[in-house]
Design a protein that fits this description.
The protein is mainly β. It is built from two helices and 14 strands.
Length: 196
Amino acid sequence: MVISTTTGDEVQSFFLSGKYGDQIGSNVSLSMDGKTSNLVHVTKTDSFYVLFYTANSLYGYALKDLYSMATGSESQMSSLKRDPQWEKMIDSTTHRIPLSRSSSGEIHYLLKVPGRSGKNILVVKLDTCELLDGQSLASLWVIETANVLSEPVLGYYRPDVLDIVIESEVGPNRKKVWKPISLFSLPLVFAYERSA
């Protein structure tokens, strides 16, 4: 089991034995550029990655690397491995994952959403939403949004088609609901008046 805690711009991660609860190795300190949240993602090669995100950046660490930092040695567990596709996309020095250059807004939410072959990753920023392929980290689509009001919601709003709804405020008493036809195509936009 891995647990991460945040103090200021620093993340402390540590491993605990699932059997006895004892700590394995020492704490791992990671410097980030602000307060962080995280999400665990499994790639198609069954590689585990911990995604940390701050207002300005998305970071990716293979669980294998975090374990090696904690214990001071390479893991002999076959379940801990790196995904070659992800390693190509993650900066080897900073561990940052590149996002669309069309946005400089703050990251508000990071969600796993179903994809064609495994889970994809939705990055919701102040001014854009970007869907990353969960297997290659390639950008599938980017839409411009403004002032996202809440965490996007997945659901079957039409029979047998999984959609996502993104709600953003565009002015006084007006909001847009961004609803992709499906998670596999570009979004359509519906605008409506919000009741006062």
